[in-house]
């Protein structure tokens, strides 16, 4: 009788555990339940109860806000212009949106179709009530309705900064509305949103740390590898056909020969070595040379989910790696603005790297002039320690937040200092036997996790500071395969020869030096509009070559070949052009706009002559969703 009663009590306890976590997505609730179940298996029911109470007290108050920050609020908050749309559909879409962490690709695709239809119905309801008005009057209302629904589903509307500043023209408004009612646009955004939502829940629930898996969750790592393999399989069956010559190239072979893997590392190290050589040169406008520094920047404690020991950080605010990267980027912009005001020049390379719990931190190899070294260090320290400075009063001082070390060339060159951090972020480049101090794992194994982490959160791993843009360098190197590789202008030819020889030092010198401003570059990228519009009516600019500003010399075309993408039929082996139709044609927006009076905005000549060819948008329309009186 006692044994049956004990089993009944245990079952009641586990039913309570399931109920306590039932409101969370499966990705979080399953992990929490497994921790209680593990404690029960190894230590019994008493240990399971202690674990459960700890989860309620310490983990759940962190996981719940992380989950809720991604959810859409109830439909009752939307009214005004939306009183014509199907309220039942709106409630259903919001409920399904909030269940998205548990969705598969097919569910997300259906959700994207319904959100697209919802916004399209809202825009068309406004169209029905504004007949007779010209396009300048009605387009802001179309955009306002679509943008507010897009914001409600946690996505930033296209052209939203321009809209809020009253700087959006009619073509931009049409393409933006077309995106917001387009299934493909929503499918792409919701897939990314769901992935980051799930990964953030993994981080908050303890699935990303040194005791589990560093940098990213096992679930995302497996998915990332499958996506990459599937992508390579697709590329291996895809060909590029030259329109003029008919030459056919395999897409996978082209990608493997591009800047990926070891080729990417090679270019990075060439540029790093070039900066190192520049710092040692005389005649850079200063009497003495430049000093190499190794700079480390960390975010405050509230951005870290777990401590370096792997234990829960009680100060964690629920920030995602994307939030932390934004903090560090904003911090560097403030530092850069102050450096420019004080005319302190610096150049080098910045590497963004994850801690074991996926929180980004920055390492940088920078060169600063000897006479400005002290000012530089003071500026970096001021901004790096300004936020939450109270937590820096311990025995370690400011060291947890930032660190600056002069590079001792007796120990190693500047490029050697940064090479290890580059290898940690690119697969197949780490030395065998190299162990990461934070995780205790081989660096060669962690590189894959770091690449998956950067892909998940859209984090730029490498960014150069100062110098001329590398895009010009790459385009000039392409001239080597040009039918007429030698430009007529001697200056461009000198720069081309430096680029073709892989001499980053000479290339930077010829472009104006390591501290040159973009407006003072000798050679710049030349872009032209694409021939065809995309699915949203936009005509994007594409790179065509290079040119010299202020010089009466025609641009040099570096991209002379046009390729069509063709796919291979697995059965016959024949090739056919793969042109997939858009999921939602953008001309649906034209049905609401094109028949209205345009007040001259459709006339290109008048647009060019008009000093302000923008829509005059009444700001009160942006969030005008109060109940109609």
Tell me what you see in this structure.
This protein is an alpha+beta fold. It contains 21 helices and twelve strands. The protein has helices at 2-21, 26-43, 45-68, 87-98, 105-129, 135-152, 160-164, 170-180, 183-204, 218-236, 251-256, 262-279, 321-341, 373-384, 414-423, 443-457, 470-478, 490-500, 504-511, 587-593, 604-609; strands at residues 238-242, 248-250, 290-297, 346-354, 360-369, 402-406, 462-465, 524-529, 541-547, 556-557, 563-568, 575-577. The protein has a five-stranded antiparallel β-sheet with strand order 6-3-5-4-7, with helices on both faces. Helix 3 (45-68) runs antiparallel to helix 9 (183-204), helix 12 runs antiparallel to helix 15 (414-423) and helix 18 runs antiparallel to helix 19.
**Quaternary state of the chains:** single chain
Kindly name the structural category: alpha+beta
Mean pLDDT: 83
- Based on Cα principal axes, name the global outline: globular
Percent range for helical residues? 40-55%
Our Rg estimate from Cα atoms comes to: 28 Å
Largest sheet: 5 strands, antiparallel
Low-confidence stretches: 1-5, 283-287, 570-588, 597-629
What is the CA-CA span between the terminal residues?
A: 68 Å
Record the strand order, biggest sheet.
Answer: 6-3-5-4-7
């Amino acid at each position: 009788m006692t044994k049956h009663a004990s089993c009944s009590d245990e079952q009641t306890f586990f039913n309570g555990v399931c109920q306590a976590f039932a409101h969370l997505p499966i990705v979080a609730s399953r992990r929490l339940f497994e921790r209680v179940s593990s404690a029960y298996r190894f230590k019994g029911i008493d240990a399971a109860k202690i674990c459960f109470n700890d989860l309620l007290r310490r983990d759940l108050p962190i996981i719940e806000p992380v989950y809720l920050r991604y959810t859409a609020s109830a439909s009752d908050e939307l009214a005004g212009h939306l009183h014509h749309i199907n309220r039942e559909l709106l409630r259903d879409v919001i409920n399904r949106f909030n269940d998205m962490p548990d969705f598969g690709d097919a569910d997300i695709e259906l959700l994207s179709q319904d959100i697209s239809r919802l916004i399209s119905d809202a825009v068309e309801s406004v169209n029905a009530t504004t007949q007779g008005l010209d396009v300048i009057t009605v387009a802001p209302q179309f955009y306002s309705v679509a943008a507010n629904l897009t914001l409600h589903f946690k996505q930033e509307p296209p052209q939203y900064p321009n809209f809020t500043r009253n700087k959006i023209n009619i073509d931009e408004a049409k393409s933006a509305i077309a995106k917001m009612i387009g299934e493909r646009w929503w499918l792409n955004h919701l897939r990314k949103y769901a992935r980051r939502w799930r990964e953030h829940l993994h981080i908050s629930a303890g699935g990303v740390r040194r005791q589990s898996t560093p940098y990213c969750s096992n679930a995302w790592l497996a998915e990332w590898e499958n996506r990459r393999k599937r992508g390579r399989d697709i590329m291996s069956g895809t060909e590029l056909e030259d329109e003029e010559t008919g030459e056919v190239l395999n897409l996978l072979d082209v990608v493997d020969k591009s800047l990926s893997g070891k080729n990417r590392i090679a270019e990075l190290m060439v540029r790093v070595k070039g900066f190192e050589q520049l710092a040692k040169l005389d005649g850079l406008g200063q009497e003495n040379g430049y000093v190499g520094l190794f700079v480390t920047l960390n975010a405050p404690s509230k951005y870290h989910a777990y401590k370096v020991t792997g234990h829960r950080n009680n100060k964690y605010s629920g920030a995602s790696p994307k939030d932390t990267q934004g903090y560090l980027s904003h911090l560097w912009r403030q530092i850069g603005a102050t450096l420019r005001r004080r005319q302190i020049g610096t150049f080098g390379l910045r590497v963004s790297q994850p801690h074991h719990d996926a929180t980004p931190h920055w390492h940088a190899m920078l060169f600063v002039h000897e006479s400005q070294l002290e000012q530089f260090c003071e500026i970096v320290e001021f901004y790096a320690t300004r936020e939450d400075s109270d937590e820096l009063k311990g025995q370690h001082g400011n060291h947890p937040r930032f660190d600056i070390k002069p590079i001792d060339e007796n120990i190693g060159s500047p490029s050697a200092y940064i090479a290890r951090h580059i290898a940690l972020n690119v697969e197949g480049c780490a030395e065998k036997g190299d162990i990461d101090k934070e995780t205790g794992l081989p660096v060669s194994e962690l590189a894959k996790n770091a690449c998956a982490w950067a892909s998940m959160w859209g984090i730029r791993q490498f960014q150069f500071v100062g110098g001329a843009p590398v895009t010009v360098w790459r385009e000039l190197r392409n001239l080597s395969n040009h039918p007429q590789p030698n430009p007529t202008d001697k200056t461009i030819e000198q720069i081309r020869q430096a680029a073709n020889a892989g001499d980053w030092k000479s290339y930077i010198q010829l472009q104006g030096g390591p501290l040159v401003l973009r407006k003072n570059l000798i050679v710049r990228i030349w872009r032209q509009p694409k021939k065809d519009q995309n699915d949203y009516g936009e005509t994007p600019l594409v790179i065509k070559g290079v040119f010299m500003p202020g010089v009466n010399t025609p641009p040099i075309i570096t991209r002379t070949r046009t390729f069509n993408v063709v796919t291979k039929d697995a059965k016959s082996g024949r090739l056919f052009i793969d042109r997939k139709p858009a999921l939602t044609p953008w001309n649906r927006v034209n049905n609401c706009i094109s028949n209205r009076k345009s007040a001259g905005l459709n006339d290109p000549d008048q647009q060019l002559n008009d000093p302000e060819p923008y829509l005059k948008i009444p700001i009160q329309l942006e969030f005008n969703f109060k109940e109609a009186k």
